[in-house]
Amino acid sequence: SDIWSFGILLYVFLTGEFPFDGESELEIQIKTDKCELNLPKFLDEDCVILIKRILTREPEKRPKIDEILLELEKW
Questions:
Q1: pLDDT of the chain along its 75 residues, tens only?
Q2: How many CA atoms lie within 13 A of 46 on its CB side?
Q3: Using CA atoms, how far apart are residues 32 and 6, in angstroms rounded to an integer?
Q4: How far apart are CA 75 and CA 72, in angstroms?
């Protein structure tokens, strides 16, 4: 959950918005469960890839913090 939370914060810091939106709490929950991200076009491709990797539904498929830090160093 720490990696997931980091991904949410990274998204918010970069965009000023939350990654999952909707008209109701239920709609937001459904989008979150399906990992339906709203990715702005102004985000760099490498950034989009990293955010998608971090906000993967299955925790075991998410990158570890050292992998994330290596990616961030490239930016």
A1: 699 999 999 999 999 999 998 999 999 999 999 988 889 999 999 999 999 999 999 999 999 999 999 988 887
A2: 7
A3: 15
A4: 5
Whole-model pTM: value is 0.84
CA torsion angle 40 55 62 29 (round to 10): -160
Q: What is the rounded CA–CA span in Å between residue 23 and residue 17?
A: 15
Write a three-state SS string for 18-69: CCCCCCCHHHHHHHHHHCCCCCCCCCCHHHHHHHHHHCCCCHHHCCCHHHHH
Q: Measured between alpha carbons, how far is 39 from 20 in angstroms, rounded to an integer?
A: 10
